[in-house]
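REQUEST ID: PR-0412
SUBMITTED BY: lab tech R.K.
PRIORITY: routine
TASK: structure prediction, single protein chain
INPUT:
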Amino acid sequence: MHIHREAEAHIQRFLQRGKVCIVYGPRRAGKTTLLSTLFPERPDTLTLSCEEERVRRQLVPDRLVLSELVGQRTTIVLDEAQHLAEAGLVLKVLIDAFPHLTIIASGSSSFDLANKVQEPLTGRYLSYTLFPLTLRELAVHVPSTDHEYILEHALLYGTYPELFTLKGKEEKIRALTTLTDAYLYRDILSFQLVKSSRKLRELLELLALQIGNEVSYSDLGAQLGMDTKTVERYIDLLEKSFVLFRLHGFSRNQRTAIRRKVKIYFVDLGVRNTIVNTFTDLHLRSDKGALLENLFISDYWKQNINAAQRENLFFWRTYDQKELDLLAEKDGAFQVFEVKWQAGKPARHFLSFLHHAPKSTLTMVNVGNIMRIGSRR
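STATUS: complete
OUTPUT:
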């Protein structure tokens, strides 16, 4: 099943002489396929995989060395550029020495590659983040008769493109296990900022069991035998490696809210379900409501990352347990979303929230309308 990626049009608009287009995103999200579609193998295009040692040896910040590589080509694509020790300097030399070039780089870690390019390329690059498939991409390119199957697949196995090409449950689980073990843990541990792979796994397991709930760094640390700062650093690393993301509680004083309240969601539910090793059918699951909440909020978050004007995203909960799942604020107005498995009455707590933000609208999301709502964004 081939699904057109919305990123194609965005990246085409990003291409500018004198600037690098950087495509971030987790492994297996489709970056290599996307770049080969946009920049097929032609005499004027050079595509290099920076995972290969022989390529890394040649990609050094030296104008003469790079001149031999570039030759008469007009486009150069550096795949998985975070493996270059001096990625930012290499890209800067390419821009300065070859102003005619269209330059594209990809990276599986915003943490690693962004650190390497930020200073050398200040003001000279544009970035796009390619995630696993969004609900909008799926809804637009899959017949409506298959939407129920697609939704179930997204909740159990996630939306990595490769998973939709596999047929059996065992085959999908095996692919997800490989993805999680060989790529997720290997890449994060390669940063050499995580001392214990066991603690990292235990932290991920705890977070995977608490999606939709507020979490406390100090409580997590106490359960894991880790100090609070280490827990927060590990979560920050996981966020920058596209494994999970944080949603902060809304307060009129955001400086205190950021420290006080946080929820953690997984970018892809297939990875989350692999971590807890649970692929039970949805009708037998007690956590299906939490899975639906994670799917909708992560989908909204993914689409917001690449928006021309990003919205500020929060959840809302009061001391007397009034709660709303997602607030999306832009220019002082709020879109409010409440996610429940079954369709129901509007969230009664929305009226309380209106006292804080009168310019607000409410959308109730459930298993029957999530594909339609997701496709409208």
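NOTES: The chain has two domains: 7-129, 133-377.
REVIEWED BY: pending
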